[in-house]
Amino acid sequence: MGQEDDVDPRMEMSIGGASGRTIVRVAGEVDYLTSPRLADGLEAVLAGGAGLVEVEFTEVSFCDCAALGVLIQARQKAQAAGARLRLRGSFQPSVSRLLAVMELTSVLTATNSR
Fold first, then answer.
1. What's the per-residue H, E or C state across 5-67?
2. Rounded to an integer, what distance in angstroms lies between the CA atom of residue 59 and that of residue 29?
3. Which terminus of the chain is more solvent-facing, meaning fewer CB atoms within 10 Å of its CB: N or C?
4. Sequence-ordered list of residues with C-beta below 8 angstroms from that of 114, at least 6 positions apart, any chain
5. Is 86 helix (H, G, I), strand (E, B) or coil?
6. Element (H, E) at 74
7. Beta carbons within 8 Å of 62's beta carbon, 6+ residues apart
8. What is the Cα–Cα distance from 45 to 61, expressed in whole angstroms?
9. Strand duo 11-18 + 21-30: pairing
10. Tens digit of pLDDT for each residue in 39-98?
11. CA atoms of 15 and 63, how far apart (whole Å)
């Protein structure tokens, strides 16, 4: 049984690049069970020397505080490496509400998603 057998199908993630940006597209549910995979993906992107990482959250249907912790930690690592990490997308109402309640909207989101 390989590691892929243990991947939770509730969250999908893909990584690609465009116009000098690394885009991490996330879909589904990002919670305490799936957020470690997001953390691993973001860590790999940052370790690869990405200057700008945009985490696309448009297709995320659910997000909890564990996921926000991963995003905050990744943002801190990006800043320490001289890179930028921002969250972008047309967020689902539950994701928007969590960002607002935790007062993270201006900290994590992009002002210009382009």
1. HHCCCCEEEEEEEECCEEEEEEEEEECCCCHHHHHHHHHHHHHCCCCEEEEEEEEEEEECHHH
2. 9
3. N
4. 19
5. strand
6. helix 65-80
7. 28, 29, 30, 31, 92, 94, 95
8. 23
9. antiparallel
10. 999 999 999 988 999 999 999 999 999 999 999 999 999 999 999 999 998 999 999 999
11. 19
Contact 37, 11 (CB under 8 A): yes
User: pTM value?
Assistant: 0.86
C-alpha of 41 from chain center: 9
What token pair was written down for 41? Answer: 């993906």
The strand pairing partners of 24, in sequence order, are 15, 55
From CA 108, how far away is CA 114, in angstroms rounded?
16
